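[DERIVE C-ALPHA COORDINATES]
===
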Amino acid sequence: MNLKSLRYFCAVVEAEGSNLAAAKLHVVPAAVSMQIIQLEGLLGGKLFDRSTRPMKLTPLGRFLYPKAKAVLSDTRRLFEEAQDLVSGHFGWLSIGFTRSTIFSVLPEAVRELSATSPRVRIDLTEILTEHQGEALRSGQIHVGLARTIGTFSADEGLDFIHLFDDPLLAAISSINPLSRRKMLSPKDMAEIAFISYPKDPNSSFARHALQALEEVGAKVHVGYEAKEIHTALGLVAAGLGVTLVGKSVADNNRSDIRFLPIRGVNTIARVFALRKKETPHRLVDIFLDIVKAQSRARS
Protein backbone atom coordinates (compact mmCIF):
# COMPACT_ATOMS: atom_id res chain seq x y z
CA MET A 1 0.00 0.00 0.00
CA ASN A 2 1.36 3.40 -0.95
CA LEU A 3 0.29 6.92 -0.10
CA LYS A 4 -0.54 7.73 -3.71
CA SER A 5 -3.13 4.94 -3.85
CA LEU A 6 -4.74 6.20 -0.64
CA ARG A 7 -4.71 9.80 -1.90
CA TYR A 8 -6.31 8.83 -5.20
CA PHE A 9 -8.89 6.67 -3.42
CA CYS A 10 -9.91 9.57 -1.14
CA ALA A 11 -10.06 11.91 -4.12
CA VAL A 12 -12.48 9.58 -5.94
CA VAL A 13 -14.69 9.34 -2.86
CA GLU A 14 -14.81 13.09 -2.42
CA ALA A 15 -15.31 13.86 -6.13
CA GLU A 16 -17.87 11.02 -6.49
CA GLY A 17 -16.18 9.77 -9.62
CA SER A 18 -12.83 8.92 -11.21
CA ASN A 19 -13.01 11.54 -13.96
CA LEU A 20 -13.62 14.46 -11.58
CA ALA A 21 -10.96 13.13 -9.23
CA ALA A 22 -8.47 12.92 -12.12
CA ALA A 23 -9.20 16.54 -13.05
CA LYS A 24 -8.55 17.72 -9.48
CA LEU A 25 -5.39 15.65 -9.28
CA HIS A 26 -4.22 16.89 -12.71
CA VAL A 27 -3.73 13.34 -14.04
CA VAL A 28 -5.50 11.26 -16.67
CA PRO A 29 -8.48 9.11 -15.52
CA ALA A 30 -6.57 5.93 -16.38
CA ALA A 31 -3.91 6.78 -13.76
CA VAL A 32 -6.59 7.08 -11.10
CA SER A 33 -8.24 3.80 -12.13
CA MET A 34 -4.87 2.02 -12.06
CA GLN A 35 -4.17 3.17 -8.50
CA ILE A 36 -7.63 2.08 -7.31
CA ILE A 37 -7.28 -1.34 -8.95
CA GLN A 38 -3.84 -1.82 -7.37
CA LEU A 39 -5.22 -0.87 -3.96
CA GLU A 40 -8.17 -3.26 -4.32
CA GLY A 41 -5.80 -6.03 -5.36
CA LEU A 42 -3.66 -5.43 -2.30
CA LEU A 43 -6.67 -5.41 0.02
CA GLY A 44 -8.37 -8.37 -1.68
CA GLY A 45 -11.74 -6.70 -2.15
CA LYS A 46 -13.65 -4.03 -4.03
CA LEU A 47 -13.75 -0.48 -2.70
CA PHE A 48 -16.51 0.78 -5.01
CA ASP A 49 -19.76 -0.65 -6.33
CA ARG A 50 -19.24 0.16 -10.01
CA SER A 51 -22.79 -0.87 -10.97
CA THR A 52 -24.14 2.42 -9.64
CA ARG A 53 -23.73 5.97 -10.88
CA PRO A 54 -22.23 7.72 -9.08
CA MET A 55 -20.21 4.84 -7.68
CA LYS A 56 -20.96 3.96 -4.08
CA LEU A 57 -18.53 2.69 -1.47
CA THR A 58 -18.62 -0.95 -0.55
CA PRO A 59 -18.40 -1.92 3.16
CA LEU A 60 -14.64 -2.25 2.65
CA GLY A 61 -14.52 1.24 1.11
CA ARG A 62 -16.56 2.72 3.98
CA PHE A 63 -14.16 1.11 6.45
CA LEU A 64 -11.05 2.34 4.65
CA TYR A 65 -12.02 5.91 3.84
CA PRO A 66 -11.81 7.57 7.32
CA LYS A 67 -8.66 5.63 8.13
CA ALA A 68 -7.04 6.61 4.85
CA LYS A 69 -7.90 10.27 5.54
CA ALA A 70 -6.27 9.99 8.97
CA VAL A 71 -3.12 8.42 7.51
CA LEU A 72 -2.82 11.14 4.88
CA SER A 73 -3.39 13.86 7.47
CA ASP A 74 -0.78 12.38 9.83
CA THR A 75 1.70 12.04 6.97
CA ARG A 76 1.19 15.64 5.88
CA ARG A 77 1.66 16.83 9.46
CA LEU A 78 4.78 14.66 9.78
CA PHE A 79 6.38 16.27 6.73
CA GLU A 80 5.39 19.78 7.84
CA GLU A 81 6.88 19.24 11.28
CA ALA A 82 10.04 17.71 9.81
CA GLN A 83 10.46 20.70 7.50
CA ASP A 84 9.83 23.08 10.42
CA LEU A 85 12.42 21.21 12.46
CA VAL A 86 15.02 21.67 9.73
CA SER A 87 14.19 25.36 9.40
CA GLY A 88 14.20 25.89 13.18
CA HIS A 89 10.48 26.61 13.51
CA PHE A 90 9.65 23.46 15.46
CA GLY A 91 11.32 21.44 18.18
CA TRP A 92 12.71 21.81 21.69
CA LEU A 93 15.43 24.11 23.02
CA SER A 94 16.70 23.91 26.60
CA ILE A 95 18.60 26.99 27.73
CA GLY A 96 20.75 27.09 30.84
CA PHE A 97 21.45 30.52 32.26
CA THR A 98 23.22 32.21 35.09
CA ARG A 99 20.79 34.51 36.86
CA SER A 100 22.51 37.80 36.00
CA THR A 101 21.72 37.29 32.29
CA ILE A 102 18.07 37.97 33.15
CA PHE A 103 19.16 41.62 33.20
CA SER A 104 20.68 41.55 29.73
CA VAL A 105 20.25 39.27 26.71
CA LEU A 106 18.11 36.40 27.99
CA PRO A 107 14.58 37.89 28.14
CA GLU A 108 14.68 39.62 24.76
CA ALA A 109 16.32 36.62 23.08
CA VAL A 110 13.61 34.29 24.36
CA ARG A 111 10.89 36.73 23.28
CA GLU A 112 12.35 36.99 19.78
CA LEU A 113 12.74 33.23 19.41
CA SER A 114 9.17 32.68 20.64
CA ALA A 115 7.85 35.26 18.18
CA THR A 116 9.67 33.85 15.15
CA SER A 117 9.25 30.17 16.09
CA PRO A 118 6.03 29.89 18.12
CA ARG A 119 5.97 26.08 17.81
CA VAL A 120 9.33 25.71 19.54
CA ARG A 121 9.20 24.52 23.13
CA ILE A 122 11.66 26.59 25.18
CA ASP A 123 12.83 25.36 28.59
CA LEU A 124 14.81 27.66 30.88
CA THR A 125 17.01 26.27 33.66
CA GLU A 126 19.00 28.41 36.06
CA ILE A 127 22.50 26.90 36.30
CA LEU A 128 25.72 28.36 37.68
CA THR A 129 28.42 28.95 35.09
CA GLU A 130 30.56 26.28 36.74
CA HIS A 131 27.87 23.62 36.18
CA GLN A 132 26.82 24.44 32.62
CA GLY A 133 29.48 22.27 30.96
CA GLU A 134 28.22 19.20 32.79
CA ALA A 135 24.63 20.08 31.91
CA LEU A 136 25.55 20.36 28.22
CA ARG A 137 27.38 17.04 28.20
CA SER A 138 24.46 15.26 29.90
CA GLY A 139 21.91 16.74 27.49
CA GLN A 140 20.08 18.63 30.23
CA ILE A 141 20.56 21.82 28.22
CA HIS A 142 21.42 22.56 24.57
CA VAL A 143 23.00 25.98 25.10
CA GLY A 144 24.20 27.96 28.10
CA LEU A 145 24.46 31.65 28.99
CA ALA A 146 27.25 32.21 31.49
CA ARG A 147 29.22 34.92 33.23
CA THR A 148 32.68 34.85 34.75
CA ILE A 149 35.34 37.13 36.18
CA GLY A 150 38.93 36.32 35.33
CA THR A 151 40.01 33.14 33.62
CA PHE A 152 37.55 30.34 33.17
CA SER A 153 38.63 26.73 32.74
CA ALA A 154 37.57 25.98 29.18
CA ASP A 155 36.35 22.48 28.40
CA GLU A 156 37.81 21.04 25.20
CA GLY A 157 34.43 19.59 24.27
CA LEU A 158 32.66 22.96 24.39
CA ASP A 159 32.57 26.05 22.20
CA PHE A 160 32.70 29.39 24.04
CA ILE A 161 31.14 32.35 22.24
CA HIS A 162 32.01 35.72 23.77
CA LEU A 163 28.94 37.98 23.87
CA PHE A 164 29.91 41.15 25.73
CA ASP A 165 31.99 42.56 28.57
CA ASP A 166 30.22 43.71 31.72
CA PRO A 167 32.22 46.20 33.85
CA LEU A 168 31.62 45.89 37.59
CA LEU A 169 29.80 48.68 39.44
CA ALA A 170 28.83 49.18 43.05
CA ALA A 171 25.14 48.86 43.85
CA ILE A 172 24.23 51.09 46.79
CA SER A 173 20.92 52.12 48.33
CA SER A 174 19.62 55.49 47.13
CA ILE A 175 18.97 56.41 50.79
CA ASN A 176 22.69 56.15 51.58
CA PRO A 177 24.37 59.61 51.47
CA LEU A 178 27.25 58.08 49.47
CA SER A 179 24.81 57.38 46.61
CA ARG A 180 24.87 61.11 45.75
CA ARG A 181 28.48 60.83 44.58
CA LYS A 182 29.52 60.18 41.01
CA MET A 183 32.09 57.59 42.07
CA LEU A 184 32.88 55.61 45.21
CA SER A 185 36.35 55.20 46.62
CA PRO A 186 37.87 51.99 48.00
CA LYS A 187 37.62 53.61 51.48
CA ASP A 188 33.88 54.11 50.97
CA MET A 189 33.47 50.43 50.15
CA ALA A 190 35.38 49.42 53.28
CA GLU A 191 33.03 51.44 55.49
CA ILE A 192 29.85 49.69 54.35
CA ALA A 193 28.83 46.08 54.92
CA PHE A 194 29.45 44.06 51.78
CA ILE A 195 26.74 41.77 50.43
CA SER A 196 28.30 38.73 48.78
CA TYR A 197 26.54 36.48 46.28
CA PRO A 198 25.86 33.84 45.15
CA LYS A 199 26.13 31.79 48.30
CA ASP A 200 27.38 28.64 46.64
CA PRO A 201 30.73 26.94 47.26
CA ASN A 202 31.01 26.09 43.56
CA SER A 203 30.66 29.69 42.37
CA SER A 204 33.80 31.74 41.81
CA PHE A 205 31.99 35.05 41.21
CA ALA A 206 31.80 36.07 44.89
CA ARG A 207 35.48 35.29 45.42
CA HIS A 208 36.57 37.25 42.35
CA ALA A 209 34.38 40.24 43.30
CA LEU A 210 36.05 40.47 46.71
CA GLN A 211 39.46 40.05 45.08
CA ALA A 212 38.74 42.98 42.73
CA LEU A 213 38.08 45.20 45.75
CA GLU A 214 41.11 43.96 47.67
CA GLU A 215 43.35 44.78 44.70
CA VAL A 216 42.47 48.48 45.03
CA GLY A 217 42.88 48.47 48.81
CA ALA A 218 39.22 48.11 49.80
CA LYS A 219 39.30 45.88 52.88
CA VAL A 220 35.60 45.12 52.96
CA HIS A 221 33.80 43.05 55.57
CA VAL A 222 31.08 40.68 54.40
CA GLY A 223 27.92 41.46 56.31
CA TYR A 224 25.55 39.22 54.35
CA GLU A 225 25.77 36.29 51.97
CA ALA A 226 22.85 36.27 49.55
CA LYS A 227 21.82 33.14 47.69
CA GLU A 228 21.42 35.00 44.40
CA ILE A 229 21.57 38.44 42.81
CA HIS A 230 17.92 39.42 43.32
CA THR A 231 18.23 38.81 47.05
CA ALA A 232 21.47 40.77 47.12
CA LEU A 233 19.79 43.73 45.40
CA GLY A 234 16.89 43.53 47.84
CA LEU A 235 19.31 43.78 50.77
CA VAL A 236 21.04 46.71 49.07
CA ALA A 237 17.72 48.51 48.54
CA ALA A 238 16.92 48.02 52.24
CA GLY A 239 20.12 49.89 53.10
CA LEU A 240 21.87 46.87 54.57
CA GLY A 241 25.03 47.10 52.50
CA VAL A 242 26.66 47.38 49.11
CA THR A 243 27.47 44.80 46.44
CA LEU A 244 29.08 44.52 43.01
CA VAL A 245 27.06 43.89 39.85
CA GLY A 246 27.66 44.04 36.15
CA LYS A 247 26.76 47.19 34.22
CA SER A 248 24.01 45.19 32.49
CA VAL A 249 22.19 45.15 35.83
CA ALA A 250 22.52 48.91 36.10
CA ASP A 251 21.09 49.29 32.59
CA ASN A 252 17.84 47.94 34.01
CA ASN A 253 17.84 50.61 36.70
CA ARG A 254 15.58 50.77 39.74
CA SER A 255 14.81 53.92 41.69
CA ASP A 256 15.80 52.54 45.11
CA ILE A 257 19.37 51.65 44.06
CA ARG A 258 22.17 53.65 42.46
CA PHE A 259 24.94 52.04 40.46
CA LEU A 260 28.31 53.77 40.72
CA PRO A 261 31.85 53.05 39.51
CA ILE A 262 34.58 52.45 42.10
CA ARG A 263 37.85 54.31 41.73
CA GLY A 264 40.55 51.95 40.51
CA VAL A 265 38.26 48.97 39.89
CA ASN A 266 38.57 48.04 36.23
CA THR A 267 37.51 44.42 36.61
CA ILE A 268 35.36 43.10 33.79
CA ALA A 269 32.84 40.28 33.96
CA ARG A 270 32.56 38.44 30.66
CA VAL A 271 29.24 37.14 29.42
CA PHE A 272 29.38 34.29 26.94
CA ALA A 273 27.37 31.47 25.45
CA LEU A 274 28.52 27.88 25.33
CA ARG A 275 27.48 24.79 23.41
CA LYS A 276 28.83 21.33 22.66
CA LYS A 277 31.39 21.17 19.88
CA GLU A 278 30.52 19.40 16.65
CA THR A 279 26.92 18.88 17.72
CA PRO A 280 24.63 20.39 15.07
CA HIS A 281 21.42 21.90 16.43
CA ARG A 282 19.45 24.29 14.26
CA LEU A 283 17.65 25.93 17.19
CA VAL A 284 20.92 26.53 19.02
CA ASP A 285 22.25 28.23 15.87
CA ILE A 286 19.18 30.46 15.68
CA PHE A 287 19.31 31.34 19.38
CA LEU A 288 23.01 32.17 19.21
CA ASP A 289 22.44 34.42 16.19
CA ILE A 290 19.83 36.30 18.24
CA VAL A 291 21.98 36.77 21.37
CA LYS A 292 25.04 37.74 19.32
CA ALA A 293 23.03 40.40 17.48
CA GLN A 294 21.68 41.74 20.79
CA SER A 295 25.17 41.75 22.29
CA ARG A 296 26.52 43.77 19.35
CA ALA A 297 23.70 46.26 19.89
CA ARG A 298 24.85 46.74 23.48
CA SER A 299 28.32 47.82 22.34
Summary: The chain has a mean pLDDT of 90.
